[in-house]
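Milestone M4 deliverable, item 7.
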Amino acid sequence: MKLFKASLFLSVIIAFCCIEKIAAQVSISGEIPSLKNDQVQLWIKNNPLAQSKEYNANVDEKGKFELQIPITRIATARIKVNNNYNNLIILPDDKFTIEEEDSGITFTGKGANKNNFLQLIRKNKLSEDDFSGKYKEASLPLDEFLVQLKIFKNSRLHLLDDFLKTVKLEKEYIDYFKLENEVIYECYLNKYPRAYSRKNKIDFQSLSLPKEYLEFKTIDRFISDDKIESFRYIKEISDYIYLYAILIKENNEALNWTEAKHIFMFDTLKGKTKEYILANWIEGQLAFNNYDSLAIQEFEKIKTSSIPIEVVGKSLEKRDKKRSLLGKSLNLAFQNTILLDTAKNEITLGEVMAQQQGKVVYLDTWAMNCYPCRMAMPYSRDLKEKLKGKNISFVFLSTEQVPQKQWTKVYETTHTKENHYVLKHGFKAKFLQLMEMNWVPNYMIIDKQGRLKDYCADRPSKENNERLAKRLSTLATE
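Output delivered:
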């Protein structure tokens, strides 16, 4: 029985946004009677450096919806309908229909075949999600894991070959799938021995590695500009930054973490890989209001590709826009953010700040399911105790909804019953949308006059508390 049918079609509008970049307007429409007055959500990554961007379509009383989405190249997407999530691959000339039946999702039309292939992978339990459990458990001996990894890799390729016997796929997608498949294989060859040694408390250097693992014992064998189009490749290299910084610091304890990471990025990486990873690093640092001048200088020396150049340029613009708010009264996005108090009464953030007038506010945006958030709470308690008697308030905003019976657990976790609120719209809260913050924990400082002093303040910790206490105390006496 068909549950819904949605049409996706593309009209390509050529625009020279930047070198090698073509903009295409993707229109997704459909009619889903079971979703009357509800919403369809889609998240899309338009290039290997892109953050997932969310698109929402309201469904009217007849179950109809429409989305307009710009893409520039092959894009990965994830769509949510009726609490079900499905992965999509989109190319700039696709025009296909999505149908949901009791047996699952199917696609028809131009560009449908590659998404039907994704569903086939899922049904055959050959997605990376299906395999990743073996890596996370890290219980298989190295040779046994290698056997399973080869079976996984080859089974995906055999499935593709069998599919292509009767169905055509775009060459761009075939190349993309084979590249991702190889990158996944090499990622696990590189990562599994260390995961196995940690889980089983075995010295990594004492492991007897089969030759396949030895080839990828260091990252040099993995690095290749031929893989730059792989979404997974960029993520994996970015994850290696911290791992190799640890190894670098072991050889030179005088280095700080940033210096160790710089050595890896500046000296180990080459070519386009270095350019993309530096852009990714700079974007992340700027999001936290950290201007890494050395990384930016290194990037300026080597930049040639349009995507990294655009990412760094936009990131600098976003940082400047956010920094322009510092030292000023909270704007309307902050003031009009809707909160719920512990009795579920609505109150705006502006009203909460008015109640704290004359006090410095340390604004802690957090969530109970966030481990770093919870681990910071004892240090937050210590900081609050250290500042006791001063005109300083700690205000807690939860991005998660808190059932009434769970408030006791919240009080225990935060070590206080004071100044607790819930962001009614979670990460879609107006001030978080303005500041483009989609993570927790996040800490902001508002001075006694209600002016924003910092939107990425230090987290309470053993290392930070003395500096935080001095800063907050200074603001309280100004």
